[in-house]
What does this fold into?
Amino acid sequence: MNKISSFIKNNKAISWVLGFQLFRLILLPFMGLMPQDAYYYLYGQNLSLSYFDHPGMIGYILRIFTEIFGQSIFTIKLADFVITSLTILSFYKLASYFLSQQKLQRAFVLLASTIFVSILSFNSTPDVPLLLFWTLSLICLFKAIFEEKKWFWVLGGIAMGLAFNSKYTALLLQIGLIAFLIFSNKYRKLFLSPWLWVSLIISFAVTFPVWYWNYQNEFASFAFQSSERTSSISEFKFSSKYFFGAIGHQMFLLLPVLFLICITFTYKYIKRALLKFKIPQAKTLFLLAFFIPTFVGFFSLTPIYWVKLNWMMPSYITGIILAGMFISKKLLKVQLVFSIVFHVLFSLQILFYFVPIKSDDTWVGWKELAKETEKLQDTYPKTFVFSGDNYKTSACLNFFMNDKVYAQNIIGLPALHFDYLGDNLSTLDNKNGIFIDSDKRFKSDKLKGTHNPLLNKYFDSVTELEPIIIKINNKESRKFWVFYCTNYQSKK
It folds into this structure.
């Protein structure tokens, strides 16, 4: 123990990383349930080969943790924290292949100081396992290519497959690998190696559950992830809001210093390639092959499409290693100042909820809503509960309530994986329902006065009840409209 303590004291980088992780761990018990936590917990409680909007890895992880430690918000957050901590350790191993000790320490601190690592540590999303298996894939591929350890082709294939079973974005791993081999004069010969193709075949074989689920369900997940977005992109409508919104998001996730360094070296390497036809040396090219397609690829869409803030996260793994080659000690200190300020503000918001969030993407109010909804069921016995958003309210209520809560498929609207839970809605025929509808822009405690016309199609009558008002710190912070609906008929 004394040797370990002495090593940590003499290694400032590890001290910084442990400090950030300890800070995150201390905050875990104070974090409330996010809708994403509840939704992917629902995945785990309804095990399947895959799911409608994503593969199931995050659901499987949450199922394992809740089976071991029991169902609680803390258990879910702990799962995210543990997996993200493994990603940080894997990153250190990967970065050590490319950087000197000094630059390695800077890259290590850069990663740990980012906001996106905090988000992954607190919020259950498919990106949590994606980044772990993405990083492990790169470790295996590095050893297979640069150290010529053939069995790492097999391990790399498995890791790439597990990354795809986390999120479809992982397909960019195979794209990055092929791009690297195409542009590398030295390693292009690996296209003739059977080990490369064995790796790619294994990566595809590991993803078989996802493909088979899609085959069984008319490729619903692939269609959902591609058709709508392809349609929006094909309209080619320029929006400055999308572009500057993406810049703001990425600058927040990476913090300004790291973001600007990433922009700078991206411009530098692309300019060299296009104007001087200079290809970087092999190891740098390897890092760029798993950075450029994701980072530049998604950024190129931002003028015409709303790119979500988490889509570029996989590129940060090799991007931060590249940034470690360029960042100075002075700039690293500036990055740390930004990080400390943002994390302090973040912790104050979690602990005291100073700024109300006008959105359902919040960690407050869900447990209180569940209690109030159970009181309504006592007042109106033998009623079922459902909500009208895609998944958020329904998933959160399902987490806290004993009775099953339904989604908007009750009134014929698509409801993501709720449509694939195997519910026989006809068993609800002739029953009365309580419809919960979130007022995201809560401005007053008045009745809504209107309701979704689809309710009239499936129920004989709809009566608005007093809204549920949730108080946080003795302030009215969240509001939910409530409707009592009689005599449900599923086949209308």
Q: What stands out?
A: Residues 329-352 form the longest helix (24 residues).
